[in-house]
Amino acid sequence: MSVVLYGIGSPIVVDYEESCERQGLAIAGAIKNVDGPIHTISAVPVYRADEIPERLLSLPFIAPIFTPGRRRFAVEDAQRHGFGRSFTLVDPTAVVARSTTLGAGTFVNCGAVVGAAGTIGCFVLINRSASIGHHAEIGDYAAVGPGAVLAGNVKLGRGAVVGVGASVIPEIEIGDNAVVGAGSVVTQDVPANTLVAGRPARVLASAIVGYNDCAA
């Protein structure tokens, strides 16, 4: 099977490439949709968004970008250019409970563990060695950083970000577009559009509307 990488300006694209390799997926092409450096390491053809070959449009695409707003832009740009199918990529070293559902376009990176009875939305990124507890509810475009831990029954809103190594205790709800700083310990609910950090996490900024640009 072949896939297309749509958006290759983020360094995290190399993790997607490695996961594709481990899954035995061929990368048919990579689309450069914004100005800037190209971070791919595979020997795949690179095309600008205005020169995509017709044959690629029938293939599923992946948007390899960590920041929710930029990932959403890439997804919508891919759809505008004629891509109709997104690909859900799970690294073979990750463990995902059979009773948990993964939405279209989601990426579960190497070493991650996702517990039972969860609902993971579309175009979510669960990064290296993250641990997601049972009954998780994760909204579209959310991002969980490397080594982060979400305990059981945690809700993560659309476009929310949990930073590297952060921990969230059970029964916590993190609102849409909220950001949890790296290494934080979240012990109470986080409102939408709010930045928190610290151990325990405290509000550093409110009303960060547009920070992740993932409003429904």
CATH architecture of the largest domain: 3 Solenoid
Distance between the amino and carboxyl termini: 32 Å
Strand order of the largest sheet: 5-8-11-14-17-20-22-23
**CATH H-level homologous superfamily name of the largest domain:** Hexapeptide repeat proteins
Largest beta-sheet details:
8 strands, mixed
Kindly report the CATH topology of the largest domain: UDP N-Acetylglucosamine Acyltransferase, domain 1
Write down the Rg.
17 Å
Description:
A hairpin with a 4-residue loop joins strand 22 (195-197) and strand 23. The protein is 11% helix and 27% strand. The chain starts with a strand and ends in an 11-residue tail after the last strand. An eight-stranded mixed sheet has the order 5-8-11-14-17-20-22-23, covered by helices on one side. The chain folds into two domains: 2-80; 89-205, UDP N-Acetylglucosamine Acyltransferase, domain 1, CATH 2.160.10.10. It is built from two helices and 23 strands. The chain is of the alpha/beta class.
How do the strands and helices of this protein lay out in sequence?
Layout: E1 2-6, H1 13-23, E2 26-32, E3 46-48, E4 61-62, H2 68-80, E5 89-90, E6 95-96, E7 101-102, E8 107-108, E9 113-114, E10 119-120, E11 125-126, E12 131-132, E13 137-138, E14 143-144, E15 149-150, E16 155-156, E17 161-162, E18 167-168, E19 173-174, E20 179-180, E21 185-186, E22 195-197, E23 202-205
Quick take:
The chain is α/β, with parallel strands linked by helices and 216 residues long.
Fill in the keyword field for this structure.
alpha/beta; 2 domains; 23 strands; 6-stranded parallel β-sheet; UDP N-Acetylglucosamine Acyltransferase, domain 1; 8-stranded mixed β-sheet
